[in-house]
Amino acid sequence: MKKFHRAGGKAGLFAARRWSLHHCHRILTAVTVASSLTMSLAIFTPAWPEEIRQARREPQPSKCDRSQFRVILDVGHTADALGANSARNVPEYYFNYRLAAQMERILIEDGFDRTVLLVAGGRARPSLFDRVARANGLSANLFVSIHHDSVPDKLLERWEFEGKESHFSDRFSGHSIFVSYKNPHLDGSLLFGRLLGKQLKDRGLQYARQYTQPIMGRYRRKLVDPDVGVYRYDQLVVLRRTRMPAVLLEAGSIINREEELQMNSAERLDLISASLTSAVEMFCDRRRSDRFRR
Question: pLDDT tens-digit profile of 63-86?
């Protein structure tokens, strides 16, 4: 191991003192020059005009007016046309209503107090045109139809629940988001669909993958955003005929026995509701920013 020795005696002390004086002089000189430059800049830099200083202190508003932004939450199906049955024989309509009602409450609490819970009645097909007409008459900024998923009949399996015959399919799970390319506000529909899908993904929820598979038959759809699970479904009346950005959310599979239980949990309801609220906030801000840029 090498050993290092300090300089000793008077020679070492003199050398150290000479180094210190020399470098102190250089440091003081540098400080003096820097101070002079700072004073010069202060003298020769023109003052900011008052309006520029004001703009720098007060950034331009970028958030939309939530109190004027109307979201329509469409409860899928009706009390007369209940939709699919869950694996435990609960009609889809009840899942749809419960989730949409919670979303409405949270959006209103978040400042979107013009949010509308749209509940239609009657038979399935006529109810579609009724809800579209009502939505178009409300001058809304966004339309979201709330549903829960099943599978084609050929994929169902039989089982017994509480002494009654029922059907299930544990093969598929997850949520799905649909947009129609025939909606007059396709860009807005795609934007919100992607924002919603991203929020669901960020909360650890997985989207359903089966819609691209041949086994889905006439229910097969094109996946337009493979990252967050947005599908194209042009024929859906509530997406095609509404005159505002519109998406349909299949919040989860109630024909999957495990996921049905999850869809009944407060935790899952909160995750989905929070995802939608965050997506609405970002969509509202983005649409306002887009209008300012035009």
Answer: 789 999 999 999 999 999 999 999
